[in-house]
Structures are given as structure tokens and as C-alpha cells.
Amino acid sequence: MVATRSQTRGRKSHYYVVAANLEAIEILEEGEFDMNNREVLGEISDAAYERLGVKKDGRLKFDTNKHIVCLDCQAHYKEKEGCKLHPIYWVENSFASQGGRRLPYAERTIPPEYFYLSEDTIAGQGIKAARKIPVGLVFGPYKGIKTPTEECRNPGYSWHVTIKGKLFTVDAFDKTKGNWLRYVNSPNEETGGNMIPFQYQEKIYYKTIKVIQKDEEVLVWYGEQYGKELRNLRASRQ
Ligand SMILES: C[S@@+](CC[C@H](N)C(=O)[O-])C[C@H]1O[C@@H](n2cnc3c(N)ncnc32)[C@H](O)[C@@H]1O
Description:
Blueprint: H1 5-8, E1 15-20, E2 24-29, E3 38-44, H2 46-51, E4 68-70, E5 75-77, E6 89-91, H3 105-108, E7 115-118, E8 126-129, E9 137-139, E10 145-148, E11 158-163, E12 166-171, E13 195-200, E14 203-208, H4 224-237
Parallel strand pairs: 6-9
Antiparallel strand pairs: 1-2, 1-3, 4-5, 7-8, 9-14, 10-12, 11-12, 13-14
Bound molecules: S-adenosylmethionine.
Residues 122-126, 156-157, 182-183, 185-186, 188, 230 line the site of S-adenosylmethionine.
Organism: Caenorhabditis brenneri
InterPro entries: SET_dom (IPR001214), SET_dom_sf (IPR046341)
Domain SET: 111-223
């Protein structure tokens, strides 16, 4: 969605993805926003802006490979940019060569401007916010070893993905293959999550659905099956 400098080279970019009071993001034309209250997250080209927010015909069958859902509008959109009223901002996975080979691959992929690894979490290692993070940011994709579902050995570290109609799992247990999203824990209740997972073009991404305060833990609900396991675990401890 956000045009990189190379894509915009030679032409002026007029639109910016901005976070108002760091709460939610929106796309505004330069001059429409007051820099005092807003942070610019990135630029967007005129062409990308023009494609935004075209709600698809309600009869259109939802296709995870082509469409983005907007939960606020209960609608789906054809373009990666999503909905104009509730836009999303794709944050690229990063890879830090510094930290050397001492750190596992998974740890070196944490985008340091947004997150850090912590031991002071709901369970074992987890991810915390290095800054306040607004609603609407998309992180990922979740990287790991693609396995046929029936052979998946680490369900706690694996997401289902549908590829050409077939169900697979992406297993990120191995820190040399899985990236930083493998560290994100689950809340104890569904409503406790501040990000949600979704599939887009055969990959899993996490999107912020609540403002995440600095030093707050990032939590993604793993699904009803895992929720049941958590409840059973808690019951067995009582
Ligand atoms: C994707 S990993 C998260 C990173 C993990 N905490 C670690 O240290 O590697 C998922 C695993 O973390 C643990 N976990 C995540 N959320 C939890 C929770 N709310 N309660 C208990 N264990 C949790 C479970 O062992 C689960 O299989």
C-alpha cells in the first residue's frame, strides 16, 4: 500500500498514512493534517489512493488470496490497501544483521522500532511494544516450515493456511526457521487480544485491533480449540 521511495521516484506523493494521536490510522492529503497531533507512518501514491475502499459486491465470494476483510464495515475489499474508512498499513518484516549469529533468526526478525522480546509475560517468552502502536497496522507474514496439517508436530506454534484449497500448517517452533511472530502469546480470553490473525495470499498476518501501549504485551487469540486447552489447563491447576 505504501509506496516506497523507489516507486515514487520522480513524482510527488500526495497522500500519507497518518496516526491521529497515535490511536487509529487514516489516509489524508498533505495539508489536511496538523503535524502536532499526528504521526506520519508512510506515503501512498495517488494510484494506490484511487484504488482504496471500493466495497465489493456483497455476492462476491470471499477469497483469502484476493480480498481483505474490514471487520468495522463487515465487508471485503479487493485491493491489498483495504477499506478507505478503516485503512491498514503494512509493516514489512525486518531482519537485523547486527546482533550477529548469537541471536536466533526468529529474534533478529523483530522490528525493533515497534517491538522487543520479553520474559516478563503471560507465558514464557513473549513480545512487548517498544512504543504506542495504533489500530490498523499489519505485521508479518508469519514464517515457518510449511507442513501438511496431519503431520504438524507443534500446534502451539503453527497456523493453518489454505493453499489452492488445501489445508497446511506453518510451523514456527524452530527458531532458525520461524520468525518473531512465533513469540506472540495468546490472551487467556478471546476478548483479551490486541491483534488478530488473518490470511492473505497464502500467508498469515497479524493486525492491531486495539491501541497497544508502550511496554504492553502483544496478544493474539489462537482460536477456539486453543482456548479450550487453556481453560482445561487452568481447571487442572485449581
Ligand atoms: C506461539 S508460542 C508463544 C511463545 C512462547 N511463550 C515461548 O516462550 O516460546 C505458543 C506457546 O506459548 C504458550 N502460551 C501462549 N499463550 C499462553 C497462555 N495464555 N497461557 C499459557 N501458555 C501460553 C503455550 O505453550 C503455547 O504453545
